[in-house]
Amino acid sequence: MSLEQAKQVAAYQAVDQFVTNNCIFGVGSGSTVVYAVQRLAERVESEKLKVTCIPTSFQAKQLIIKHGLNLGELETNPNIDVTIDGADEVDSNMTLIKGGGGCLLQEKIIASCSKKLIVIADYTKDSVKLGDRYKKGVPIEVIPMAYVPIKNKIISLYGGEIKLRSAVAKAGPVVTDNGNFILDWMFANQNLDWEKVNNTIKLIPGVVETGLFVNMCCKAYFGQPEGNVVERSVIEK
Ligand SMILES: O=C(CO)[C@H](O)[C@H](O)COP(=O)(O)O
């Protein structure tokens, strides 16, 4: 089974288990979410479901419109029932790295307004410690004028290496949906307390948001090479 098929089975299973009639549904971003929206559109059509979709990015909004789904706004729907989103890496505590696609800020806002955040991913995202599998580091969205001091402060606090994310089909940096830059922090120490790190980095002036999602995700679906899906839930402490 290809990686794409692994993404698809995870997405379909999550949508089948979590989307119900009249729900307010947060739509994540990335390539795996494309399959979730496809499945949602099929179910809305065949079961005549009423679902209001709240996007986490320009891409998500386009997907909702393309599939003829009901597009809502956070302003009028601040209480989201469930959000289904992708992730770049999920560790054994269900801490996530997100933002590989550059949409982390709106993704975190939507996740924070959701009763449940469900992750869908292929098996390559399932790891024990952050950095085991995802090698591009933690994305950090920053105000453009502050990217150099922010970079220096993070390095002096925790070490590692930081790159300003470059655009692919444009000269210069990636500019997010919110008009900001992204720093990718390749941390050197995998044994950090990610909650503390997230809180500390967020206090640096000019940092808008980090791609560390700590204590936010309650369940993850990982599509496997054999075609089955492994489900992992947060263990209550
Ligand atoms: O956080 C994200 C975008 O900001 C994505 O959800 C994450 O990068 C995973 O994407 P994909 O499903 O394409 O692997």
UniProtKB/TrEMBL annotation:
Keywords: Isomerase
EC class (word): isomerase
GO molecular-function term, one example from the UniProt record: ribose-5-phosphate isomerase activity
E.C. number: 5.3.1.6
The protein, known as: ribose-5-phosphate isomerase
InterPro entries attached to this UniProt entry: NagB/RpiA_transferase-like, Ribose5P_isomerase_typA_subgr, Ribose5P_isomerase_type_A
GO CC terms of this entry: cytoplasm
Pfam families, per database record: Rib_5-P_isom_A
HAMAP family per the UniProt record, alphabetical: Rib_5P_isom_A
Pathway: Carbohydrate degradation; pentose phosphate pathway; D-ribose 5-phosphate from D-ribulose 5-phosphate (non-oxidative stage): step 1/1
Catalytic reaction annotation: aldehydo-D-ribose 5-phosphate = D-ribulose 5-phosphate
UniProt gene name: 110384695
GO biological process: D-ribose metabolic process; pentose-phosphate shunt, non-oxidative branch
Protein family membership: Belongs to the ribose 5-phosphate isomerase family.
